[in-house]
Amino acid sequence: MKFRWKITFCMLCLMAVLFGIGSSALIAISFQSGLERERESAKNSYRMLMYTLQMTGELETWSSTEEIQNLFHRLSGQGDSWEAITLYSEEGELYSSGEAAAYFTESRGRVDTQHCVITCFSDGDGRRYLQLSGAFLAGDRTLYLDMAHNISMLYQTREQQHIAYRRIFLGMTALCAVLAYTMALVLTRSLSRLSRGAREIAQGNFSFRSNIHSGDEIGRLSEDFDRMAGHVEQNILDLKEAVERQERFVGSFTHELKTPMTAVLGYADLLRSQDLTEEEQRDAANYIFSEGKRLERLSLKLLDIYVADREEITLSAHSPGRIVRDMAEHLEPGYRSQGIELSCSCEEGQCLLEPDLFRSLLVNLLDNARKALTEGGAIQVSVKMTGEGCTLTVQDDGPGIPEESLARLTEAFYRVDKSRSRRQGGAGLGLTLCAKIVELHKGSLNFESREGKGTKVTAELKGGRL
């Protein structure tokens, strides 16, 4: 059963119970109030009749039924307030009038001259009456008087009220059903949109948003749903990018292995199957050696990335400026021989870092800058201390990097200039390792470059300070 039908059914049940209880109570109260009025009216008429009978004179002189009949005829002419009446004594009935008198109940043993008894009875036609029974003294005799007061109209009114109640109840039920369903439809429309959103997301439409702004619980649920959908969409995009990177990694890794392995196998087969001169043998051996060294560098880089990704590092206090100056002094002669000017500017201070990983970061950044300067140039290295650690910057005046390549620089095996990188022995893993080292120091790696203007790489390390 749909939720809107449940709401409609609950509202109908609530309306039926409340309307039924309220209407029944009103009818019952109205009936009891009318019955009390009829009882009081009947009691007043009965007292008046008793008083009149006592005041008519010497009742013991009523020696015949005709005299009593004449008396009651005179009284009824003054205003007949009864449907039937019976007067009797211990010896027997003295006077009776009205068809309802045949249905009187015996009350002689329950009355006295001080009290009267009121009971209710109905005749053969279903008419309802109040029977008032009492006794009074007439000389030395006790006479009994029964009087019937018609209250059928009161019961007819109640029956008419019940009929009107049932008609109104049916009309109110129909109206309530329409209004309740309309309200439920309006209230559940937002839930229907949320349900549609769940189906859309289940079918792969992660961009769907419910966009319900009602300000109530459903509105807050919609906001949470949209926030969840946004996270799901972002996670799916991240997964797709991860899969694409993984596929590119596998393809690149396969290609990196295929090229040297093909060369190694080719020259090895040449040495094995052909008679070569000493110089040809030396060239083949040198080529096999260089390709083997290339495979070695590739495996070592992959091992470094694997270890950095899974190793729990311990940060300790070191001076990054001192490490940079020592590395620059060690590398400067080699760079100078290639026509590259290496300079550094370092602030004094200590921060928390892993020194071996920091050296590996510096070496890889400098190596990338060196490879970019094929015709010589300048490399500047600087260290600045920050409140959270330090900032390492390596800047060159080389040819720069195209803007579309900046976002992919840290991908494994990605090269801006593939042919030049292979000639220089690069595997395309240096910046991948750098990004991992910076991540282990809770920092970030940023690239700024313009073609023809050089490249600036900034590594922000946020391992903390003493």
UniProtKB/TrEMBL annotation:
It is a multi-pass membrane protein. The keyword Repeat does not apply. Residues 252-465 form the Histidine kinase domain. One of its GO terms (cellular component) is plasma membrane. Its EC number is 2.7.13.3. Keywords: ATP-binding, Cell membrane, Kinase, Membrane, Nucleotide-binding, Phosphoprotein, Transferase, Transmembrane, Transmembrane helix, Two-component regulatory system. It catalyses: ATP + protein L-histidine = ADP + protein N-phospho-L-histidine. Pfam families: HAMP, HATPase_c, HisKA. SUPFAM superfamilies: ATPase domain of HSP90 chaperone/DNA topoisomerase II/histidine kinase (SSF55874), HAMP domain-like (SSF158472), Homodimeric domain of signal transducing histidine kinase (SSF47384). It is found in: Cell membrane. Residues 185-237 form the HAMP domain. This is histidine kinase.
